[in-house]
Amino acid sequence: MIPLEIRERESPNHGSRGEPARIDMLVLHYTGMASAEAAIERLCNRDAKVSAHYLVEENGNMWRLVPEARRAFHAGVSCWEGESNLNAVSLGIEVVNPGHEWGYRPFPDAQMLAVERLCRDLVSRYAIPAHRILGHSDIAPERKSDPGELFDWPRLACAGIGIWPPPAIDSARGRGVAVIAPAAALADLATIGYCVASNTQTAVLAAFQRRFRPERCDGRLDAETATRLTEVRTAYHRARQR
Ligand SMILES: [Zn+2]
Hints:
Shape: globular
Oligomer: single chain
Largest sheet: 6 strands, mixed
Strand content: 5-15%
Order of helices and strands: EEEHEEEEEEHHEHHHHH
Strand order of the largest sheet: 1-5-4-9-3-10
Structural class: alpha/beta
Distance between the termini: 27 Å
Number of strands: 10
Radius of gyration: 17 Å
Bound molecules: zinc ion
Helix content: 25-40%
């Protein structure tokens, strides 16, 4: 395999992971800034107090900003599988994209290829389980919508990175769902790993849709979303049993 070519630029924004250190989660972001240069400047600005371990430009160039052994400041207030303080246990990758604020656009092939190679390397070196490869919006659904509905999760899953079960043929029309039950949806979201309560269900459903039913991310429990919840819950359940 061709070794990864990674440029170095050290961000001052990192801390100790604590003892004993554990790294078993990968979080994907978009930069949400007008340019890659602006994003790198901000991630390396002491006053901004934000950072990530890696950044991937649209042309596929990769940067390391924080050593993997250190805790980068990328997740903020976050939660998954009932666990918070996720910066301590995760690696963060910033994928350059202007984001919803500056003109959200598709992630180019060269960039996705680089993301795929970087993820594969990290996942294999740290044995990160598939059910802990997540988007920022998965772990902070009320605050964040990155990497967003254009991010190619199916492509990564095909490459063995993360979980994205292909929808059953009928689920596009939501057939086979007799009842749309909010309580069942809440339980499904929690089984997948989302930290959800009845008052955050809309935000969490929107995060779920961005990732697994990206055609419409309105946070509404329609029939297709309910069907998709069942499929994804089953896939996560299986992955955890491995
Ligand atoms: Zn983010």
